[in-house]
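Two quick folds needed for the group meeting slides. Do the first one here.
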Amino acid sequence: MTNSIEEIEGMEVIFIIGSNTKETHPVIANRMIKAYRNGAKIIVADPRNVPMTRFADTVLHLKPGTDIALINGIAHVIIKEGLENKSFIEEKTEGFEEWKKLLEEYTPEYVEKITGVSKEDIIKAARLYSSSQKAGLFYTMGITQHTCGTNNVAAVANLVTLTGNIGRESTGVNPLRGQNNVQGASDAACLPNVLPGYQKLDNPDVIAKFEKAWGVSLSTKAGLTATQMIPAALDGKIKALYIMGENPVITDPNTHHTVDSLKKLAFLVVQDIFLTETAKLADVVLPSTCFAEKEGTFSNTARKVQRVRKAVEPPGEARNDLSIIMEMSRRLGYVMDYKSPEDVLIEFGQVWPNLAGITYKRIEKAGLHWPCPDKDHPGTPYLYKAGFPVGKIRFSGITYTPPAEVTDNEYPFILTTGRNLYQYHSGTMSRRVPAIEAHAGEPYVEICAEDGRKLQINNGDILAVTSRRGTIRLKARITSKVTEGTVFIPMHYSEAAANVITNDALDPKTKIPEYKVCAVKIEK
């Protein structure tokens, strides 16, 4: 996030797109609701009637996979009506005129045909979002998990730039992370083409700095993304995998393909707190500790680095992740001499200036937002106050492209997937809680009443939902949450795993799968 969570309450307009915030980020949603009670206007763009629509001034029920058309349409209206931030554009951007020409075809009438959102609502959203200089835009995996996910994000950035809602308090473009330390993992280089702090492998100065810090020679070759590793295993290009705190059998698209790939490996190691569906396929399982059984830091979705403290002793022979990694490294010939996670944070600050001023002592009671370059720096709740590292922001010429898989006579429904309030991710933890299971322990598919009537489906009927990749069976839930022609399945339930049928087509740049759109048929 470019801005802090605390700033949400000061926003005058909140634009939520591709995020079921109330169920997947309830703490942040509560801040949004406080802003609403303070007078803020909320725009929600989503294929479903997600809970935040209750608080929305404007609801945009777009067809899954049409986000770029909708965003470009909103930008078209803002420019046509002269509502753009002209001084910001002139002083801090480039490429505006070329981008403006590209938007000419995205009239409200044209966008309505693509997205299903009425031209009146497109115009209303454009006027509302551009009406305030305290407008924040929020998105999650409803934007990123598409074959055009990179372009979706660029389109969002265009819209924020057009209105100048960046670089000030209570504004910004704010992607909400899917799990508690995704930001910290990214900061620490759990990515294939960077070293800690997003420092590029192809930069000789960066390589020299880390070689000196670690006392080793480093490869400058980028690795594979997680979604590239699975097909590489099936092709025999990868012989062994070490999976830590991840359950790809449930969370990766096209589950049958994932299982076949993992079974073809010569050697699979899984490090986790439970025997997950993926761990059951492993040759070696390394039992690790959960957050409450170890010390360290997490970096939240707003870049705030916070302490994690050990509250209870771990069970059995479970060990914290750092000690396991250090022992693995020692046996492979490289001794990591860390006495504690605090040593790791200190080293992190030495190789990445953005963390140099964050110490255990300073975050004893409250966290700090990076960048925090020295011990006297107060941290940075919002970014770009002094301008942008690249100089001027360039508008990106992003055009709408359909999803990788569209409906036809055989597969007439669009499936979109996501989470619900009660379960968490692949259910590794939440599905072990009897009270949660008693309330929300059964998979389901949401279908609207009109589609149910056409197919003679009643609430609770067992349905077979089939894509080109497989079939799952689960109960029908007749609901007003989805629109005609669209169905929704939560991804938590291994007995009817949504990712058995999702599409494993990837975004060409980030290699993120298109979880949010695929074509399916439904039968009783």
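Then this one, please, same format:
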Amino acid sequence: MKKLSEYKIMPIFPTTPVSDPQISPDGTRILFTYSQVNMEEDKYETQIWIQDLKEKNPRQFTFGKQNSTNPCWSPDGKLILFTSSRPSEDDPKEEKKKKKAQLYVLPADGGEGRQITQVEGGVQKPAWSPNGKSILFFSHVFKGEKATEESDVKIIRRMKYKHDGRGFSVGEYTHLFVVPAKGGKVKQLTDGEYDVEAASWSPDGKTIAFISNMDEDADKSFFRSIYTVPVKGGEPELLRKDLGRISDLQWSPDGKYIAYTGREIEDPDLVWHKNSELFVLPVGRGKPKCLTAGFDRTLSRGGELKWTPDSKALYVKFPNYGTNHVYKVTMKGEVEPVTEGNMNVGSYSLDDACCKVAFSASDAVTPSELWIWDEEGQRKLTDLNKRLLKKLHVSEPEEFWFTASDGVKVQGWIVKPYEFKEGEKYPTVIEIHGGPRGGYGFNLGAAEHEFHVLADHGYVVVYTNPRASTGYGEQFAGIISGHWGERDYDDIMEATDYVIENYDYIDPKRFGVLGGSYGGFMTNWIVGHTDRYKAAVTQRSISNWYSFHGTSDIGWMTLPTHELINGSDPWDDLELCMEKSPITYVKNMVTPLLIIHSENDHRCPMEQGEQLYIALKKLGRTTEFVRFPDEPHGLSRTGKPKHREERLQHFVRWFDRYLK
């Protein structure tokens, strides 16, 4: 048997090597972050770079052993702020090792960064005030209880006490702070047993609007509201008691509106999928207006929200048919695309005149690079992945569409083996994305790198956007509400049938399946309902909705458990809860199944993989359990580079054993 180390994997790279482009107010220069993998030290290295639009090549702007992130121009373009965990000479030796990110400011023309905060909870999401004299930021505040200062015992009194990727946050809350741009005393603006999730300066710089839920039962609610708080200090004031989840907000330049993204929910106990929409709320306590009701797409997760200077339109992002682009939405509800092409736009920013859009973007064969859209059109500015691409074996995916049995068209892609030979038949693997409200597309990130690793080892790789995927309308994504494992399962089965019938290089007797998160749930569901696949790999998966409800950091929330059980808790409809749990069908599972899970996964906890593994072993089925220590749910995207590499080696090992 081959040793694991003998399975050679092409180089790992950050999911988005180029990210967070920030164009200067006058539109002449662009700051952005560039990340690389240091395999020797098993870490990612991120620094800030700058692209002068008059010059051909970008140059590195920050240096050092510690990462620098969150670049942001001051309103006059003379200063740049960023965050870094670089230690100072005054820090004790032990503090240097575990220091959290702090705020730094430096001249836009270069120089040494000057540290202006030293807050215990670290700094996140900094933003300049409109006049450039102050900086708003988020930080964690401990408001819990400990027996002694040194105690490591956790006293838990709320349901929301852990977050995947962040770990346990018992008694810790996220709040707003301001600090003078020159440095000085830090002022805390919000305080209490609640989290602030997004914030925006008013154009006069006197008030902050923010999103939170201050209700006593906030743990149990999916809803968020909009509040305001004076920068000079005072109690927050409720501006809008909302009817659903809000994820972002921005004050209009004229001060008359607050734009926010989210969705209204008629029944708080029964949350079927709906598009995330763009709303504008009159600050004078009028009713909000939905601007995107006539555009059947959901806003991108974590998409930036930008106003035009005249307050007559906003820029947002939407997924559409495997792409992700910037769109302009007017106050009249007119929606038009800005960026275009078979690519996925990441983060973006606009100059003060909104004449230029700087953005990061990836296509099917290129990791993210820096792009710009202006009066000359759209073009790529950097080629920082050129050296990396010479080491990667990337095959151009072929897009296909098939008509499902209910008449709906479903999009997919197929990747041939890197050393493809006409006339040969190849083993094939079908990949299932997470979410479920997500999607594959024209992109080359961590997920797609996985496809090309398998293709490099002689596999055909098929990936599709079955029902539940975003980018195809509300009905397409919402049809599985309360029906996971039904129409989505049919789409995956029919996609398998389609590629077997239409691509003669596929060997139908050597077909595998794999997926992570929701894709892991679907992999478990599939092997419990069919034996047509000869091998399977399930990652960070869900096997039992009942235990997931109480162990996941989101399991007890309105989604996803309540969506599956028609608004009920598991104990109120045990029969339906277990009917939708893959573990119920474990006796039907005969496909060799590799179970991969991260030990610090708080989203789909380790126990989900554990109970499936033990059940299969007791039944005498072919299975293995691979556990990755010190890794969260996002192992495949943000895990330690060596762990990401080893994870892929297990994929190839497993499929080689059962498909070759």
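Slide caption for protein two: The mean pLDDT is 95.
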